[in-house]
Amino acid sequence: MQVMQQLKRAGSWQLLLILLLAAAMRFGHGDLVEYYHDDAMLATLALEAADGLRLPLTGILSSTGIPNSPVSVYLLTIPFAIKADPHFAIHFVMLFNVFGVGLLWLMARMFAQPRVAFVAGLVYAINPWAALYSRKLWAQEMHTPLILLGLLLLLYGFWQRQAPGTPRRREFLAQALAVPLLLFAIQFHFAAWSLLPVVLLALWVGRRRLSAPAAALAALLSILVLLPYAKGLAETLDRDPSRLSDAIGRSTASGIEIDLAPLSHTIMLVSGTGLETWLAPDQTEQLASRYPSFWRANFLLAIAAIAGLLACYKRSQKMAFFLSIWAFAPVLLLIPGWTPAYAHYLIPSLPALALMTAYGVDSLLQRLDAKPLGKRLTWGALTCLLGLQFLQWQAALGYVAERHIDYPGFTAPLSKLLPLQDRLRQADDVLVISQGMAWNLHHEVAVWDTLLWEDVSCVRTLIPQGYAVFPDHAFTVLIAPDASIEPRDSLYAKADSELFPTRAGGRGYTVIDWNAAPDWQGPGIESLDPVLFSNGVQLTGYGIHGDEVFLEWRLPGRRVGMDYQYSAQLYDEEGARLGQWDGRFWHGRHWCAGDRLLTWGPLEIDDPATTLKVAMYTLGSGKNKAQFFNAEVLDELGNPAGWSADIPLVGSS
Questions:
Q1: Which of 17, 117, 429, 440 is at a distance of 20 to 30 A from 249, taking alpha carbons?
Q2: Contact assessment for residue 459 and residue 475, using Cβ atoms and an 8 Å cutoff
Q3: Which of 110-114, 149-153, 177-181 is predicted least confidently?
Q4: pLDDT, tens digit, 9 for 90 and up, residues 19-47
Q5: 540 phi and psi, to 5 degrees?
Q6: Where are the beta strands (DSSP E) in 414-555?
Q7: What's the confidence (pLDDT) of residue 253?
Q8: 148 or 240: which leads in pLDDT
């Protein structure tokens, strides 16, 4: 193949250098990465898919309230099928993005000039933003290599004139695979859909070269890659028909206003500046003070990119138009301000911005062909600018490693969680005390469930306000930094606890081992003959003390997605309701077989009560909103026996 011959003759050393630099930026301090809520939720779905539990048709919810495509889950299933460890999956993402840097170099070698390819590869390899967005399990940090591969096939199949004797099957495969691959890739994040005009432009320019069999195969594959998300989104809208209109309504509620933030983000991305605005938004000055003295010189790269686009227009209007859409379509999508704009929405533009910069540098070097000193100074200046970016990146990593930063800044790095992961792997049962227990809302739930996926048989998260659980075997308590402190929190406290600090200024994690469940120190609980509900939960006791009602339950095994409410209602002898408490029951993903659970909440009454009715129910959503569905109470034969457990209160009030 002609391209491979070119690589062997002149480009292999360039590619090796570029890949080594890309790997150093992405794998350097490889455990100094974030592993937070979105990462852990994606990991959960991928682990479930890798274990054959379920293959989702949608991903996690986007910020608009519309579920994302599941393609990011499908890609992450590959590393998790090899090893059920998020740290391994993060390294997979890093390697995947190193591959993407090589693809950008190859694209420029094939469709531009060798020097443009070399500079573009260097700029993209060392750009701190490109490195930052290559080190997480975020969906949008995985699509760029696939976009690059799709664009490469698109240009090869529709634009490049093939040398005589080139096998037609290569062009056929490029034409058949390019569009399906791009449709797969742009599903990772909604901002990537703005690249569709790039696809349409390439198809229009090369329409006369498209073979009918390749078009048919491309159409079939495109339907297949869009089908899972189309089906999942249709099911979501069937359950909740107003989901899409509500999202549009929220986006347009305040009207369309011009937002110039995407332009400032673009300048930061192309120059490699402004990391502090993302990593430490409340500590920008402190972080920026760690940068090299002349770091602002990197804004020269933005000037080079503008000059490069102009130079590209002079060389090839077709390529310049292609590059302009690639670089600025996501920016134009966000300028109307229909949704808040963030720098990571522009990740697909990073390779195009690197190419623009390379064209600018190459144009300057061409002007200096007769001036060797000027060329050496230009290469020296570029080397210094890229060196400044490298030093800036190292300073940023050093800062986030040692200083506590509040969310949405850089959260506790994985390097601080790995020793704790090793410690918790010694347990068979882990109870996490945190400020929330909802998988889709609170990060500690998904983080520890996935970090301990294969090693601990039961990992659950509990808030101490209104809940207490008593396993029937040894277990380990992990108190998260975000856990609030209230009087009953001392239930799981011990003098021989172990502290795992995170960063200076943060609270750290506390680990406590229990050989047996602690004794309940609160009000007494009166035992009942177990009352079985249809969800497998048993009501085994109750207590009414002052203005609080306490209920004791026995739990079945884990029930992911089984999220119930419970209700405690007091009635007098005439059947009039005197008081009621409704609370959220412990989510089914946290249940472990045989656990004893206590729940409590306020229940104020003034008149004597004769009956306590306890019920469990789920709340409807979407078209069933404002409805509730009871878990049936079952009799000894397992037949439905009503919607509540009716407990007589003789002499109680």
A1: 440
A2: no
A3: 110-114
A4: 999 999 999 999 999 999 999 999 999 99
A5: -120, -5
A6: 429-433, 458-462, 467-470, 475-479, 498-500, 509-514, 526-533, 538-545, 548-554
A7: 60
A8: 148
Helix-, strand-, coil-residue percentages of the chain, each rounded to 5: 50, 15, 35
596 domain-assigned: yes
My answer on whether 51 and 190 are in the same domain is: yes
| Judgement on whether residues 157 and 231 belong to the same structural domain of the protein | yes
Which among 445, 307, 356, 397 is positioned nearest to 104, based on CA atoms? Answer: 356
Q: How far apart are CA 324 and CA 4, in angstroms?
A: 28
* Alpha carbon distance 201, 310 (integer Å): 20
Q: Which of 402, 432, 463 is the last residue of a domain?
A: 402
Give 632's DSSP letter.
Answer: P
Residue pointed to by tokens 């975020």: 138
| Domain-located, residue 619 | yes
* 46-60 per-residue burial string, b: 16 or more CB within 10 A, e: under 16: bbbbbeeeeebbbbb
- Token digits for 359? 């064209």
Instruction: Give the whole-angstrom CA distance, residue 112 versus residue 597.
Output: 66
Return the SS3 of 615.
strand
Within a domain: 375: yes
- Distant-in-sequence, close-in-space partners of 236: CB < 8 Å, separation ≥ 6: 58, 66, 67, 243
Helix (H, G, I), strand (E, B) or coil at 278: helix
**In three state form, how does the secondary structure of 228-257 look?**
HHHHHHHHHHHHCCCHHHHHHHHHHCCCCC
Asked, for residue 519, whether it belongs to a domain, the answer is no
- Tens of pLDDT, residues 605-651: 777 899 999 999 998 877 777 788 999 999 988 999 999 999 998 65
Phi then psi for residue 460, to 5 deg, are -140, 155
Element (H, E) at 324: helix 317-334
What is the Cα–Cα distance from 47 to 229, expressed in whole angstroms?
Answer: 19
Collapsing DSSP to helix, strand or coil, 548 comes out as strand
Supply the DSSP symbol for 338.
S
For residue 366, what are the CA distances in angstroms to 105, 375, 378, 592? 20, 9, 11, 69
CATH of the domain at 577: 2.60.40
Same-domain status, 596 and 467 = no
Tell me 595's DSSP state. Answer: -
Query: Are residues 555 and 429 both part of a single domain?
Result: no
Domain of residue 616: give its range.
Answer: 526-648
Q: Two tokens at 362?
A: 């190459």
- All residues at 6 or more sequence positions from 478 whose CB lies less than 8 Å from its CB, including other chains: 420, 424, 430, 431, 432, 433, 448, 509, 510, 511
- The last residue of a domain, from among 453, 483, 514: 514
Residues 327 and 287 in one domain: yes
